[in-house]
Every structure is written in C-alpha cells, then in structure tokens.
Amino acid sequence: MVRALEKYIRPGIKTTPFCPGCGHGILMGLILRAIDELQMDMKKMLFVSGIGCAAWIPSPHYNGDTLHTLHGRALAFATGAKLFNPELCVMVISGDGDLSSIGGNHLIHAARRNLDLKVICANNMIYGMTGGQVASTTPKGTKTSTTDEGNPYPPFDLCRLVKAAGATYVARYSVTQPVALVRAIKRILLREGFSFIEVLSPCPTQYGRRNRLDRPEDLIRDLIRRCVTEEEAEGMTDEELAEKIITGEFLA
Amino acid sequence: MPLKSLQSSFLKGTFYLSGNEASAEGAIAAGCRFYAGYPITPSSELMERMAFRLREVGGVFIQMEDEIASICAVIGASWAGAKAMTATSGPGFSLMQEAIGYAAFTETPCVIVDVQRAGPCTGQATRVGSGDMMQVKWGSHGDYQIIAFSPWSSQEMYDFTIKAFNLSEKYRVPAFVMADEAVGHLRETVRIPEKIEIWNRKKQKGIPPFGTEEADGVPPMPSFGEGERLLVTGSTHDALGYRKTDDPEVHSKLVQRINLKILNHRKEIVETEEYFLEDAEVAILSYGFTARSSLYAVKGLRKEGRRVGMMRLKTIWPFPDEKVSELGKKVRKILVPEMNLGQVAGEVKKYVTCEVISFNQTNGEIIRPEKIKEELRKIL
Amino acid sequence: MTQTQQIRVSGFGGQGVVLAGLLLGQAGAIDGKYVSGSNSYGAQARGSGCKSEIVLSESPVDFPHLIGVDILIAMSQGAYDLYHGEVREDSGLILYDQDLVVPKESLKVKQIGIPATHLAIKRLKNKQVANIVFLGALIEMTRIVSPKALQKAISMHVTERFRPLNLKAFKLGIDVGREIHG
C-alpha cells in the first residue's frame, strides 16, 4: 500500500491477515484511496463488518470507528448506529456469504428502507475463512469443499437482487478494475441512500486451487478476461456471454 | 391514558397502565431513546407504545425485519450513544441469544424485556408461562453474566425497566426484565414519583474501553463519532479492542472480568423482599406474577395461625444466593411454585440444605392462590 | 361499600366488554383507588366468550385477579350461564341485559335486568354502546366509582369521533339506574 494511505491505517498495524493473492488487500487499499481523494474525516466514519475474511478489511485496519459484528448481521448493527447518529458516515464492508446468505434477509430489508448506508460486498464466490464451502454466490458447476462434483445450484445475482429490493445505487466491479471501482466508491461516499457495490475479489486459496486456477495470477487473468461492461456485452452471443461477468453501474 | 395527551418525556402522577405500557414509560423516563423490535405476542403493546412515545420525545423507533435484526440494531445504537432497548417473547428471545452474547462480550449496555409466554416452541402464544428463567442466564454460548429482574406488577414493570437501564449503564451489561404474560397484560395503578434516579454510562477520553486494572472493573464507554476510533469486536479482544484470537491469557482475563464485574457486585445488584419470615417454619420462595398468588396464600394461612413466610426474588440473575442460603437455614422447607418445571427451584437447591419442594404448573394458566395454599397445607 | 370490590364484565367478543372494564378501572384509578384489571386476550377477546375483570381497593391489591365476584355484568346468555355461580351469595349483584339474558330465579343474589342493548338501539341508534349504558346504570346504583371519573375515563380512552355518543350512553345508563334504584 502506498505511503500516502498509511495515515488511514490504525497505528501499529504492519500486515494484513489475507492470504497471498487474495483480492481483499487490493480492495482494502482502493477504499482508502477513495476516502483519501475525498479527504473524508475518518473520525466521522464508522465501518461495520460481519464475520469472514472480508469483514477483516476494515477491522482492525481502518483508523476510524470500527464495529466487527456477528455473522450476517452487519447491516442490522449499522442500521441502529446510523439511525441514532445520522452524522456518522456508515460503510458496511463484508463478504458474499455474510451479506447475502446468512444475512440475506437483512440485505433486502436494508435496501428496501433505502437508509444511507454504503455497502461494499467483497464477493469471492466462496466461504474462504471456513475452508472453501459452496456459497450462495458460487457459480453453477464450481468445485468446492462441499460440492466436489460441482455446485448443482445457480448463484444469486446480488446486484439484481439488491436493485429489486429498493437500493438506489447498484454497481459491480472487480478488483482488476481499480480506476472504475475507486470512482464508484467515491460516488457512494458522496451520495445519500442505500448504495451497494459488489466487488469481485479472487480467492486463490479456497476457490482457485479447486478449479484449475492454481496461481493467483490465473485468477486475476480470469477476472480480466471475463469482466465486461454492459456495452461490450450487448454485442455478444449467448454463448460468449455465458462465461462473462457484466460490470458497471446498474443504477446510479 | 390517552396517548394523544402525553407530551412530557417523564410523566408524573398516578396512571392506569398495563405492565407492557408501564415498562415503555419506565424506559422513556430512564432515558431510552432507541427502540428496535419485531411484533410478537404478548409483548407487542410495549413496542406500539414506544413507537408513539419515542416520536414524541425525539427518539428513534424502528420495526426491524426480525428479532435478530432488532437486537443487533439495539447494540449498534448503543455504541452510537443511545440508551437502547427491545422487547420480545419466547421465540423471539431464542432468536436474540447470539447477539445477547455479543452484547455481554463487547460490554454493550442494552435492555431487553421478555414477556414470557407458554413454551416451548410456539407453544401457547397468548398464554402465560415463565419458562425463560434459565434461558436468560444461559441462552448464549460461553460464560458470561447478565442482570435480570422479575416484576410482579405494572408498578414494577415501570420501576424495574428503569433499574435495568441504570444497572445496564453502570456495569455495561445487557439487563433483562423477565415479565410474564400475566404481568405484561395486567392493568394496574402505577404511581410515578416526582423524581427518579438515572445512571449514565461513564465516559472518559483516551482510556481503554475494554479493560481495567482491576480484575472486576467496568471500563468507560465512548461512542462512535467522538473521535476515539473505536475498535469493537465480538472476537476475544485486548483492552484497546484488538482481536486476540490465540492468546490464552487475554481470553481468560476477559472472560473472567465480564463475569466478576457482575458477580463481585451482587450485593449492590440483588434485591429480595421478605414477608412473615421472623418465625416461619416453612417458606415460599416466589417471583413474577406467581408471587402475587403466593403472598395471598401466605396471608390467608397466617390468619389461620400457620407459621409460613415468603421470600420474593426481585432480581433473578445474578442469583440471590446469600439471601436464599440464609433462608434455607431459617426454615425447614421451602416451596417454590413456578410456571415452568422447576427452573428456579433447581437453583435454590444449590444453595440450601433444607428440603426444597418444587410446585410446577405448565398449562398456560396462572397458578391460583388456592392451589398454593393447598400445597402449603401439605407440607406444613 | 366494602374495602375491595371484585367486578366481572362479560359478554360476546365485540360487545365492548374489554373497553367497559378498562373504563371502570381507569375511573377507579382517577378516584384514587388501587386498581388491578385483566381481561380476555387475543382470539378469546374476539370470539364468543369475553370477560374483563376489575379489582377496586382502598389498599394495595395482593392478588390482582378475582377471588370471588361481587358484581357481574352479563351481556349475553352464555356469559351469564358461565359466571352467575361465582357471584357471592347475599352481598353479590348481577346486572344482565334484560332482552338477551333469561336469569335463574333461584339465585340468592340480587339480580337486575337492564335494557341496555334495547335502549342503545332505540335512543342512540347504536347497539355498540350498550356496554356504556351498563356502566352508567352500575355506577348510579353502586357508586363503586364516581360518575365524573368515568366521564373522564371516556374522554381518555374513546376516540374523539365516538366520544359524544359514549357520553350520551353513559348519561342514559345513569337515568336507567336512577329509575331502577329510585
């Protein structure tokens, strides 16, 4: 991480807990880059997270108020804090399993209320911390520690889910699209209402090694190859699209 | 009382309130300014009154998507500086247990009113029971302490809700008002005094919010947005809040402290009440609505010249072990009537050597005084 | 009047049994008495049998439900059949709706028929306020609470829209009580 961002890191913290090749470290830096570009006051920022690898992005690293909560419940805790003190800029950073599986009900209700919460869902499409079990976001056919013959079920499209539930800003980017992602994070920091960014973040340890993407760079290359914009997607055949992940701002 | 005419945040005078309404008024008087809840019989009137009253006094009310979200929002609001509460009944109380452990471990003040109904499971939703007396102490995993009161009247729904807030703030611990359906729906005259005592959490800048020098201390608690850059986590943490998930010493010290800070202050927390115990040979030990029946039965037998007395537990947790132990030395037998299968009787047995007779009724109805009288006659 | 009065209001769900109990209790509280009130709840309160019980006392109430019944208001035959046996002999009082209930003649209890539903329909064009007619008659005959306190209770618990109607019903009940009593 660049030295300029060190002031946003809690003093004394030297390393991150993430595996080599994990995308969460990149995301951790990109969020701070957006905060830095906007000169946000960290003393007025509250970062709420659930349980899982992504929940460790803000806690303990970010030098603002951090609330590391229960598995799935980050949005409920955040709702209480934001409602009681609307002056707080409340950002929820957590994983796909946390926000959309065990916390799925809170996600759709928080979106419905359109409370001013800035939600960043780090989606690695798997339960990383617990050993690589299938998630509600794992693509069909993917091998995980609980689907050794491939996931038989289709995944959630989190952006469509949250949009349908009433969110007023919805976007999807990958950590391989840092410029666009920082722009999106800045946008949600400045706007009011329930904002949701799904960030695709590779997990070489649990996802890659079971799915013939053995090396971290394989996963990065895979994401670069598969992520397309909506415009790019328009010209593609169904066959071409099957593999692609559409990124961009879906509701802004 | 007409809801429309209530304006002040602190009513004074005599009112005719249901237990649930009285608890809401106690909360407002204690300074509660945040309520998150989910409808459940027989506690919903409490939430309905809070919705109206919090709007009136400039607080925050939200009906959440479930009980898990409700208690989590309460904890979030508490860290944002609110005196916060929720109310529920059996099934909702079960759903809240994980987060109650979170509140205990992160030392978050909050108040939960459980208006108990006849369980287990959905049971009899509109009927009375007191089957959550052990769950409130042991419902979440791991070792922790909480404070729990057992009210027997609308008046005590008011008084104990205030006490729950005060002790919750003082000891940074979840505090419970373990009402039952009969008390929640009982409508009685409630006398609200001119002045009430209110305690607020201690704040001190730059002091570690999760550790003290003493093994049983209560650290100060800053709020979000005050520039303290708080680090709150439900994982094992050191005095500053840093996760220490492999350090045996930090874990042991923290678990010990969150238990000792309550247990070592039992004398200040625990309240009991005694009736006709001076010369009693047999005593009833009673709590909650059942204590109303017990007192009536005891007074009736006293008129017949029988040497029977009663101890009422106003505080259930921490358990009034010393008082109960003294009682056990004073009398030959103790009768414990309960609307469960002997939850508190089992606890009493831990602290006395005299005979303890458990009298249980789990039919969704209150235990009437005649039944208690009959049981007492059998053992006198 | 004895120190403690135990009153049961009973009838069908929908006859205003719970409201009548609430108003009586509230009036007692306004008069400075110790009051404990409880009533049918949930599906019972909406269904066929509904009751509301009030204990009025000059001193704190030990047991807040009824031990015996000093006064029974029976707004339906079902309620009368179910509860008349619990009313205290000699000192007890039963008020029943004279057009809806056929009382037992052998009871050693004072029983008075009140044309509450009939009058509510005839004079006020609304049978919903029969409960308040009962309260007026009861209070005029027994003074267990003051009429003023009950009027205040109505203003506290009845929405503005129906308040004048309820106050009229109360006055009508007082007139009925006076006629019977006088």
Radius of gyration from the alpha-carbon trace of chain B, in angstroms: 21 Å
Shape of chain B: globular
CATH topology descriptor of the largest domain in chain B: Rossmann fold
Percentage of residues in strands of chain C: 15-25%
Structural features:
heterotrimer, B: 380 residues, alpha/beta, Rossmann fold, 2 domains, eight-stranded mixed β-sheet, five-stranded mixed β-sheet, 13 helices, 38% helix, globular, C: 182 residues, Pyruvate-ferredoxin Oxidoreductase, domain 3, six-stranded mixed β-sheet, 7 helices, 6 strands
Helices and strands in order, then pairings?
The complex is a heterotrimer of chains A (252), B (380) and C (182).
Chain A: H1 24-37, E1 45-49, E2 65-68, H2 74-84, E3 89-95, H3 96-102, H4 104-113, E4 118-123, H5 158-165, E5 169-174, H6 178-190, E6 195-200, H7 216-226, E7 227-229, H8 230-234, H9 238-241, E8 245-251
Parallel strand pairs in A: 1-2, 1-3, 3-4, 4-6, 5-6, 7-8
Antiparallel strand pairs in A: 5-8
Helix pairs in contact in A: 1-6, 3-4, 4-5
Chain B: E1 13-18, H1 19-30, E2 34-37, H2 44-57, E3 60-63, H3 67-79, E4 84-88, H4 90-105, E5 110-118, E6 124-128, H5 135-138, E7 147-149, H6 154-171, E8 174-180, H7 181-185, E9 187-192, E10 231-233, H8 248-263, H9 266-269, E11 272-275, E12 282-286, H10 290-303, E13 308-313, E14 315-317, H11 321-330, E15 333-338, H12 343-351, E16 355-360, H13 369-379
Parallel strand pairs in B: 2-3, 2-4, 4-5, 5-8, 7-8, 12-13, 12-15, 15-16
Antiparallel strand pairs in B: 1-9, 5-6, 7-14, 11-13
Helix pairs in contact in B: 1-2, 1-6, 3-4, 10-13
Chain C: E1 4-11, H1 17-30, E2 34-39, H2 43-46, E3 50-57, E4 71-74, H3 77-83, E5 93-97, E6 110-114, H4 116-124, H5 130-142, H6 147-157, H7 163-181
Helix pairs in contact in C: 1-6, 4-5, 4-7, 5-7
Offer a quick outline of the entry.
Chain A has 252 residues and is an alpha/beta fold. Chain A has a single domain, classed as 3-Layer(aba) Sandwich (Rossmann fold), CATH 3.40.50.
